[in-house]
Specification:
- Helices cover 7% and strands 38% of the residues.
- It folds into three domains: 48 residues, no CATH class; 88 residues; 34 residues, no CATH class.
- The longest helix is centred in the last third of the chain and has 8 residues.
- A hairpin with a 5-residue loop joins strand 10 and strand 11.
- It is mostly beta strands and 173 residues long.
- The chain starts with a strand and ends with a helix.
Length: 173
């Protein structure tokens, strides 16, 4: 009997991925009926492994539950948590990602590694703080609504030059 590798995704009522399986080797009792699949081969004993995603009211992922975690209200050691600050419109957005619980090397116990991602009001990543405290900055070529190249100045410099009235610019320098 032939086997296939499949990935299954289940969606919530809003069309967001609720859970998805990792690739799993399956066999079909009836190849014309996808509901007759069952795990086979190396995956026969473990079956399907699932990852879950939870969303906030804006449809953004706030929690990822890995295959070794349980879909429950309590946190698993392998969960990834994502928080958002700002609306992304007036002043940009700061996204904080807290990774899996890992052993600490500087003291006893476990901790989650944090990463902060800063985006400007156009949704472009401008800066990143990694778990080790390292900073990575990004520069972007500025484009106006007609997609004309405005130069290589920073977004802040562009806003100050083109969006802030000249009478107020002297206080920014």
């Amino acid at each position: 009997m032939a086997t296939w590798a499949v990935t299954i995704a289940e969606y919530d009522i809003l069309g967001r991925v609720k859970r998805s399986s990792v690739p799993t080797e399956v066999t079909y009792g009836n190849v014309n009926d996808p509901d007759t699949k069952s795990a086979a081969g190396d995956d026969l004993t473990r079956g399907f492994l699932w990852t879950y995603q939870k969303y906030d009211w804006m449809g953004r992922v706030v929690r990822k539950i890995n295959t070794d975690g349980a879909d429950s209200p309590t946190a698993n050691d392998s969960d990834v948590f994502i928080t958002y600050e700002g609306c992304g419109c007036a002043g940009g957005l700061v996204t904080t990602v807290e990774g899996e619980l890992v052993p600490r090397t500087d003291t006893s116990g476990n901790a989650r590694r944090k990463q902060k991602i800063y985006q400007d009001i156009l949704g472009r990543t401008t800066k990143m703080f990694h778990a080790a405290g390292k900073i990575r900055s990004f520069s972007h070529e500025q484009m106006n609504s007609a997609a004309q190249n405005l130069g290589s100045s920073s977004f802040t410099a562009y806003v100050e030059k083109h969006c802030v009235p000249a009478a107020y610019r002297s206080g920014l320098q």
